[in-house]
Amino acid sequence: MARKFSFAPGEYYHLYNRGFDKRQTFLDRRDHVRFLASLYFANSKQPFYPSDWLGKNIEDVFRSVPIDFSNRLIDVGAYCLMPNHFHLLVREKKDGGVSRVMHKLQTGYTMYFNKKYQRTGGLFESTFKAQHVDNDPYLNYLLAYIHLNPVKTVDPKDWESKTIRNKNTAREFLDNYEFSSYHAYVGFPRPHNEILSAANFPGYFQNHKDFNDFLTSWINFDDE
Prior knowledge:
The structure is a single chain. With 224 residues, the chain is an alpha+beta fold. It has helices spanning 29-42, 61-64, 97-117, 136-148, 156-161, 167-176, 182-186, 208-219; strands at 12-18, 74-82, 85-92, 129-133. The protein has a single domain (12-223), classed as Alpha-Beta Plaits (2-Layer Sandwich). Helices cover 38% and strands 13% of the residues. A four-stranded antiparallel sheet has the order 2-3-1-4. The longest helix has 21 residues, at 97-117.
């Protein structure tokens, strides 16, 4: 189905996709890190070669392989990887940037996944899905939605009912969940934080405490 909008520089988008037939797309920690590294390097006009990563701790790749990010194709404001899908909140910088990054990302990761697990064919349901984020409340909401996504693995019923019953457990789980941009927003150092260029998003949070308070308000939403 054709999209009802065209990507344009300066506009914000929620990008997401899940595994074909809802299959898991990330089976171990290395899969998650490989996807994030691919996102990091796909966001450039420079070609990148996964063979450059051979023999390296893949997390060190974020620091050891030089990439010129002065010409990023997109700004990434938030991301989250789940067992069978992913979410990205982005702003297009260069004309055609979203489509170019997503093609390189999904194609490269599918080739890696198929080789590793000795399979063939497509991994994701489609090219990718996208929603145009055309107003401030929606953008603000997505920063909560994407970062709270891992809570659904703690208790899916909470997610379906939009009520988080065990709030302390939920927050502890988020603190220990590696594969989202949550850590960058709360001030935990991670190599993956280099993916973000959140400064090019609205300044909702002046400091880490502001973000903590923001997320706490969503976790406690049903109590208000």
